Amino acid sequence: MEHPSIKALRKIRVVHEGFNMSMIEHPEHPNEYLATIRDKFNTSSYEYPTIENIVYLVRLDSSFQVVESKKMEEPPRKRYESFTTGLEDCRLLEDGSTMTGVLLDNSEHWVPEMCLCHFDRVSHKIGKMIVFNTNTNSDEPKPEKNWLVLNRNSTKLFMLYSYDPLRVMSVDIETGDSHLVHFQKIFNLENCEVHGGGLIYLESERVYLVTVRVVNNSNYMFSMWLLLNEQYKMVGMSTGFLFSEPVDTKPRYEMCMSLLEKNGKLYATVSLDDEEIYVYEFDLNMILDNCMEKR
Length: 295
Known about the structure:
By secondary structure, the protein is an all-beta fold. 2% of the residues lie in helices and 51% in strands. It is built from 1 helix and 21 strands. It has one helix at 284-289, and strands at residues 10-14, 19-25, 33-42, 51-60, 66-71, 84-85, 88-92, 98-103, 113-119, 126-131, 148-152, 156-163, 166-172, 178-184, 193-202, 207-216, 219-228, 234-237, 254-262, 265-272, 276-283. The strands form 5 sheets. Strands 2, 3, 4, 5 and 6 form a 5-stranded mixed sheet that branches. Strands 1-21-20-19 form a 4-stranded antiparallel sheet.
């Protein structure tokens, strides 16, 4: 599946081990970028955890090439038996000193938990980690692990929690307590799941632009662009598309982790098959034009 009118203008390979890169403009170095990249290695084939995660804090130049990369250090904490150990799928916040991440080894329940992490860019050490408490219905099929930050104030994060249905949660940044603030049914996709990807607020349009992934029986199918207004209601949606060309008609496994706007261009960080990292450059107006207008 493809949508020719929203094809990327170009894609740039980021040469670094790992996958699932989140990127922001660097808070201290103009025309450079700050990123996190996840890597993993197998620890055992016969006992848990079988995978250990590593998070790198990476500085990129204006061409998205690596200038500096350091492994981040987690604080001491109790780790429970689980499929994997260590932080995974971190997403940087704009201040460049906090990020969200996923833990699977933080409890005995073998379920993913979101957390907010404070870190030091100089020492690359992670300090305080606040785990989110999900106050949603207990009959949900499984916990969500791709919460995306819409905006924040001095005490709360407002985050996209799920997409089918669309739920927005407020999260206390000190306690991690969360509460539902918006609910909307927007999809009618049979036997499919919708997962979060990247998100950015477009001041010129006063909307949030979101990428989501549609999955069927654990198989990635395609991505979509969504537009949400400032009250978190969906006001636009694109048709399904692929970032990369399929291989033998089958989509590659694509994961967009972040979006960044600069000079009328939109930059999406995308991993392919958990092996390669690319920055895709798009004409932002072309994407907006291809979202079905509902405002």
